[in-house]
Design a protein that fits this description.
Layout lengths: L1 E6 L4 E6 L1 H5 L1 H14 L3 H5 L4 H13 L8 E7 L3 H9 L8 E3 L1
Parallel strand pairs: 1-4
Antiparallel strand pairs: 1-2, 2-3
Length: 102
């Protein structure tokens, strides 16, 4: 399991996900967005949703449904305004984590 950072033009949150997801985070996020738009639950997403939490649900229930280790939120660490994002980018231990903003 590895840490990643996710946000939706708001607070940046730290999540723990399987290694393969962390290594190809952008790919999995784009696949999730396509799934959310066209997949079996697309109607539910039309009314608005929290993409970062739904992404974690997608990883747990669609991509890795048979995995015993579940992805999870660890904590919210910063807001995405410019000043705080720059601090986030240079502060250990977060600076090297994969990051995706929905």
């Amino acid at each position: 399991m590895q840490y990643i950072l996710l946000s939706t033009d708001g607070p940046v949150s730290l999540y723990e996900v399987p290694d393969k997801i962390a290594k190809e985070l952008t790919k999995y996020c784009i696949e999730f967005l396509k799934w959310a738009e066209n997949g079996p639950e697309a109607k539910r997403f039309k009314k608005g949703y929290r993409p970062e939490q739904e992404f974690i649900n997608y990883i747990n229930n669609v991509v890795n449904k048979n995995c015993i280790y579940k992805s999870q939120l660890i904590k919210t660490i910063a807001n995405t305004d410019e000043e705080k994002l720059q601090v986030l980018e240079v502060t250990e231990p977060y600076k090297d984590y994969p990051y995706f903003n929905f």
